[in-house]
Amino acid sequence: MSKLRVGILGGTGMVGQRFVSLLENHPWFEVAVIAASPRSSGKTYEEAVGDRWKMTTPMPEAVKNIIVKNVNDVKEVSSQVDFVFSAVDMTKEEIKVIEEAYARTETPVVSNNSAHRWTPDVPMVIPELNPEHLELIPYQRKRLGTEKGFIVVKPNCSIQSYTPALYALKEFGPKLVVATTYQAISGAGKNFAEWPEMLDNVIPFIGGEEEKSEQEPLKIFGKIVDGKLEKAVNPVITTQCIRVPVSDGHTAAIFVNFEKKPAKEEILKAWKDFKGIPQELNLPMAPKQFIQYLEEDNRPQTKLDRNYEGGMGISLGRLREDIVFDYKFVGLSHNTLRGAAGGAVLIAELLTAKNYITAKE
Ligand SMILES: N[C@@H](CC=O)C(=O)O
């Protein structure tokens, strides 16, 4: 089969660059269009990014001479792609409007943005956890008046270091969770050269992050009722989100109470055995082993473990009983791979495998 033609909206920013890197040599997808702000349009991708290339691997040759298009030229961009990834940098309201405009041109949109995460008929998906939420797509298409176009979003990066671990323990009814996240500076789209204040420093505030970290897992745990996603009531989650001087990798320290307290061995087995459709279908970006548990007391560590399974796996450690809660443990996930562009590419692979994304005639 020939590759599907992909557009990257907001291709010059950090997440956009991550999409460009991940799609180099992708077996199913190829970058056909890169779109960005009017400021960048008309320039080659190499010129538009200039010295702001933040990936550790070089810019792929195949994209250097692509002429960047204006992201607001929805019809023109849509006419040249089968679907788009959205990493646009606009206000929430503008993002809502532009992502729907793309969907209405019969172009599926896989978004890294938060704007549509609470739109009731827009699935917010971690492919291993809640692929059944894609069943919202026909309802959404009906609202949009489309046959093929729709929007699917991925959740915030912060929740990925603990939500899979809790979801894998669903049978024991996780009911109360306290999570403190230690978030890398790439989550703010920055590196140390651009944010020297972060060296030797910790900042105890990330705007809007605690609300997302508490609420978004409940949509993932939720169920579809009458074509709308109804969020779950449990687990009740309270968080503190802290920016730490780490380049990549979000860590979370978790305390949890269950309806039925499992034995430690049951938890370890549930994590080890947990897999989803991406593993069953052997999707190109899917980690073979989604969750790894590290026995050493000093793991997981960002430097050693963030790239586990190409940055798409979750690393857990330090599981032990607690004197206040049933258990506590530590989780780690790569925030710009599993937590951002990698998670979105995996969603697009799942959508393709399930025929929600197909080549335009
Ligand atoms: N908001 C997060 C980025 C994840 O999507 C952060 O600031 O780390």
TrEMBL record:
Xref: SUPFAM superfamilies: Glyceraldehyde-3-phosphate dehydrogenase-like, C-terminal domain, NAD(P)-binding Rossmann-fold domains
GO molecular function term, any single one: aspartate-semialdehyde dehydrogenase activity
Record's keyword terms, sorted: NADP, Oxidoreductase
Domain of life: Bacteria
Biological process per Gene Ontology, one example term: threonine biosynthetic process
Protein's UniProt name: Aspartate-semialdehyde dehydrogenase
Record Pfam families: Semialdhyde_dh (PF01118), Semialdhyde_dhC (PF02774)
PANTHER family reported in the protein's UniProt record: ASPARTATE-SEMIALDEHYDE DEHYDROGENASE
Semialdehyde dehydrogenase NAD-binding domain location: 5-137
Keyword set includes Hydrolase: no
Family membership: Belongs to the aspartate-semialdehyde dehydrogenase family.
Gene3D superfamilies: Dihydrodipicolinate Reductase, domain 2, NAD(P)-binding Rossmann-like Domain
Active-site residues from the entry: C157 (acyl-thioester intermediate), H250 (proton acceptor)
